[in-house]
Amino acid sequence: MIFLRLLNPLGLDFRVYYEAAWMIIRGLNPYRGILISAFPFNYPPPAFLFLFPLGLLAYREASIIWNLLSVISLVIAIFLIFRVAFPTGKKLFFLIFLFLFTLPFFPVKFNIGMGQINNFILLFSVLSLFLYQRNHKLLSAFFLAFATGIKLAPVIFVFYFLINKDYRQVLRFLICLLVVFALPIVLVPLSFQTDYFLKVLPLSFNLNAKDWYYNQSVWGLAARSFSRPPVIYIFSYFFTAVFLEVTYWRGRKIPGLRALGAVACLYLLIHPIALQHYFGFTIIPFIILTADFLKKGTIPEWFFLFIAYFLTAVNIKNFASVPAEYKIILSHDFFGVLLLWLLLLFKEKAVKIVGWLWVSGITAGYILILLCRGRICF
Q: Do 376 and 235 fall into the same domain?
């Protein structure tokens, strides 16, 4: 069990962070390749504001501290979103959530086992949202900007401020973000930063490795479903636009917390490469939906919530052995988050919508198989 190995070095991803920090301290450019790989370090320059201390420690010491702080960050993040969704407490529910999103939940175990940074990003993002709910808006903007500086994806939570028409909060965020991106100049030379923005960042938007099983976003679904790059791009950008538009449209008509949960789903649905260890972010919509359903939830809604948990919690170890005609099951995390998104935005109508999508998906899949057998493949 991964939680019993925290006092040992864990994960290839942590080594990437460690070596990148070690290189920066010694004036070497990690954006042209790190020591263990020719592939460049792919995090923005402000990430070194957070990672820099690693390079000052021995590898084993740094890894153990990282592991322990990662688990602590996860626990605090669960507690904070729990307090947002359950203002009156209910300790038993907190303990249940703590169990459900650790021991049986693959994304969290995968994150810790790989030494990934996502638990820290989750904490800073949730802390920002918690502070926003408590009306500490400047601090909220800072922590979201800091999370975005480390890993660009948390910028999606600005969408929540737009849904709320809180344009001043958007402005606060942008000012904090400018500060966060200006600070790394003391650690990262401008030429290194130029390499990131001109050479490394564009790599996120090509199709390399998009069809990898661990990529569970709409891009992964498209890359595993189609073979032609133009079709993959059209499918991915079209549904990205649909997810954004529907979230904005419905988000302004539903309770604020459900809109927040839907935006958290966007973090995973439309990310170019949403690997499974990113899916700890489903903690946000799961806890929000549970709180909502405890007030007034139907049996079908609880059933779909359970299905969503199962789809996001599991992992297919022998994914390479899945036949081509059944590759759609390799996007189980995507469909789990899609269920959460529908429940958050449509609740009462979600059951009917899921049924309609199921029939439409089966029909479309059958047509594509027939066309492919006729040598008209997409």
A: yes
